[in-house]
Every structure is written in structure tokens, then in C-alpha cells.
Design brief:
This protein is an alpha+beta fold. It contains 5 helices and 7 strands; from the N terminus they run αααααβββββββ. The chain has 2 domains: about 70 residues, no CATH class; about 90 residues, Immunoglobulin-like (Sandwich). A hairpin with a 3-residue loop joins strand 4 and strand 5.
């Protein structure tokens, strides 16, 4: 007579999970459970009848066995390999660089420098630049940005302290006077330039 694996007793006593048994021990456990069920059956059917009925009963199909295996709970441990951690760090840095906007950190300024803030509402514009006496009226050197796509273009520019004339250049060809400029100066071509006064900013 083949001895019963002692781990089967531990499973029956609730000390071990069924998953810890080998396939052979699991078959023995299921046989013991079937025998116990036969002994606990109503008196109306004999043990022999119960045994024959159990023998004739077809076993579970392959699909049922696979489903039972998939539904069986198992511990899952997640680990992060060093290569994956490095890739995640690089992705986080790239995201931070993509979301960084110029002007969020105040630059160090010289005593004769200040910060000029240019703002123009230009919905539908493809590009907006500022040209003025501070950049020899070059129309493509200082670009404004519409980061949140609300049609309002902005730029913070470090300029020398003093007065500066300027205009906006929309889509590379349309020169626009700043409607919110505090002061204006005639440009000699029947148009007006905005007049900006830059004051020094004291650094700590």
C-alpha cells in the first residue's frame, strides 16, 4: 500500500494551500475528498452505488481545467529592473524639459538691464515676433509663444534699461502696433510704434 504524502494532511488541516501539492499529491487529495463525500452520502444509495457513479462521471474537460488554473489565485511580485528605472528617469526628465517654459525662472540681470513683457492677442496667428530698436528691427529674432493655445502670445525679454520702440510682426509679414502700449511714437510712415520704458530690476 502506498503511503499518503504528509503534506496532504497539512492541506486537510488548513496548514498548507492546495497549490503547494505536487500533481500526484493533488490527485491523491482529490481521491480522498471523493471518498469522504461518498461516506457522507445519504443512506438511500449504497457505497458501491456511489462509487460506481463517481467512476462513471466524466472528468473535467481541458477547457475547464485551463479555466480553473487561470482562476486560481497566485501571489504576484512586481520588480523594476535597473534598465527600466533608468528609462523611466530619462522619460521624466524629457517630460520636464518639454513642459518647461522660458521666463518661469528669473534670470540674473546686470545693473543696467531689465525685463520687458510683450503680450499680443492674435487668435489664429501662426507666429508672432517683436521687432524694435533693441534688435535693429529684425522681424524674426524674438518670438512670442502661445503655450496654452488661447490666442494670446507672450514673451519676457531681457533688455537694456531705457526707452525702446517696437512693433509686432504677425505671420512674418503683418506689422502690428501694440494696442496695449502705454506710449506711442510716430514711425515716419504714418504708423505708430509702441514705446517701452525698461527699468532696472534689483537682484537679491
Amino acid at each position: 500500500m502506498r503511503s499518503i504524502d504528509p503534506r496532504i494532511h497539512q492541506v486537510l488541516d488548513g496548514e498548507l494551500p492546495r497549490e503547494s501539492l505536487s500533481p500526484e499529491a493533488l490527485r491523491d487529495l482529490e481521491a480522498l475528498e471523493r471518498a469522504a463525500a461518498l461516506l457522507a452520502a445519504p443512506v438511500g444509495r449504497t457505497v458501491a452505488q456511489q462509487t460506481m457513479a463517481e467512476i462513471r462521471r466524466p472528468g473535467p474537460s481541458l477547457g475547464q481545467r485551463v479555466a480553473a488554473w487561470m482562476m486560481r489565485p497566485r501571489p504576484v511580485t512586481l520588480g523594476l529592473r535597473p534598465a527600466y528605472a533608468l528609462a523611466a528617469l530619462v522619460a521624466a526628465l524629457a517630460l520636464g524639459i518639454a513642459l518647461w517654459r522660458p521666463g518661469l525662472v528669473a534670470p540674473r540681470l546686470a545693473p543696467n538691464e531689465g525685463i520687458a513683457q510683450f503680450v499680443l492677442a492674435a487668435p489664429g496667428a501662426r507666429s508672432v515676433h517683436v521687432a524694435g530698436s533693441f534688435n535693429d528691427w529684425r522681424p524674426t529674432t524674438l518670438a512670442l509663444r502661445d503655450h496654452d493655445r488661447d490666442g494670446v502670445w507672450r514673451a519676457d525679454v531681457v533688455l537694456p534699461v531705457g526707452e525702446h520702440e517696437y512693433m509686432f510682426v504677425v505671420d512674418g509679414e503683418r506689422w502690428v502696433t501694440d494696442p496695449s502700449a502705454g506710449r506711442y511714437v510716430d514711425d515716419g510712415f504714418d504708423r505708430q510704434n509702441g514705446l517701452l520704458i525698461v527699468r532696472p530690476v534689483a537682484n537679491e
